[in-house]
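ok so for the tutorial part 2 we go from a plain amino acid sequence to predicted structure tokens. step 1 is just haveing the sequence, like this:
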Amino acid sequence: MRFTDERRYFASKASVYRLLKAHDLITSPAYVVIKAENEFRDKTTAVNQLWQTDLT
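step 2 — the prediction. this is what the tokens look like for a chain of 56 residues:
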């Protein structure tokens, strides 16, 4: 930010992101992995107590 403010250069969001990524200062949101559990934490005792949705 200081570089763009002091020298009045324009940098797009994508350019800044590529620079940060190239220097390992940020990770891509595409690589964030959410691991699924093997079983539910809250056990059910009757029908229709727990519903699940898969967004993949």
